[in-house]
Amino acid sequence: MTSNAELLEIAATVARRAAAFALQRRRDGVEIAASKSSLSDIVTRADRETEKLIRDALAASRPRDGFLGEESGDSSSQSGLTWVVDPIDGTVNYFYGIPAWAVSIAVVEGDPDPSTWRALAGAVVNPVTKEVFTASAGGGARLNGERIHVTEGVDLPLALVGTGFGYDAEVRRRQASLVADLIGEVRDIRRIGAASLDLCAVAAGRLDGYFERGLNPWDHAAGGLIADEAGARVAGIGGGPADRRLLVAAAPGLFDQLHPRVEPFYAGWE
Ligand code: LIP
């Protein structure tokens, strides 16, 4: 039986390799895009190539585990464990050269469904800032090996709150209407553009809270565990597991103020 610490070592090792690859592809890609195809095409290729690197590395070390990735879909598990992967979270930031994108790799027990899975280990690597966020279930959360913890004791009016928006313009317009009200009730709002980094920011005390609707499992599988292990409450509609309907993450005291403030807005969404 592989320990959570051993699974985390695999996640972090593969995520570091993949992040270095993606960073190099971005650097190479700008030249190709400048002379040949579009940069958006380069980004799409980098996404797929990075996920293939991750998938092949995990298949080599964990051949009986399942896989669920943003770009290449899923394969069923024979071991009861599934790797949940976003090869480049923060794709638009990657496209624009904004240093807020990450490779996110988590391993979960049970079906790869955020409403039922148990996350065992996760790594989020931002190669531009050289930051490696890691956590294992019961093992705490770390940034570059140093323990991290959420900021406690912040109430909503003084909270720095992160959020994000969907790719659909009409959805974004509706989401912005909540932010238009909330921005006057909190310290300020931040839109970083990568859910995994938003969740790691909560874990490290760089954000006091974060909420978003419409996240895919691979966006929050690793970051959600890292935030949880750093002392955050991470939950969705009705206080149940976070899923694409809603994710809210904050220290418990702030969670009890932020969740009831945003949940009603999203509770009625399909
Ligand atoms: C992104 C999420 C982010 C969200 C963006 C986008 P992607 O994932 O991490 O939180 O606000 O709209 O969905 O598409 O870059 O992997």
Low-confidence stretches: none
Strands, total number:
13
Broad CATH class of the largest domain: Alpha Beta
Helix-strand sequence: HHEEEHEEEEEEHEHEHEEH
Largest sheet, in brief, is: 8 strands, mixed
* CATH homologous superfamily (4th level) name of the largest domain: Fructose-1,6-Bisphosphatase, subunit A, domain 1
Radius of gyration: 18 Å
**Overall SS class:** alpha+beta
Overall residue-averaged pLDDT value: 94
Structure description:
The protein has 270 residues and is an alpha+beta fold. Helix content is 42%, strand content 23%. It is built from 7 helices and 13 strands. An 8-stranded mixed beta sheet has the order 2-1-3-4-5-6-7-8, sandwiched between helices. A 5-stranded mixed beta sheet has the order 10-9-11-13-12, sandwiched between helices. Strand 4 and strand 5 (118-126) form a beta hairpin. The longest helix has 32 residues, at 4-35. It is globular and about 45 Å long. The termini are far apart. Residues 86, 89-91, 164-165, 167, 193-195, 212, 219 line the site of L-MYO-inositol-1-phosphate (LIP).
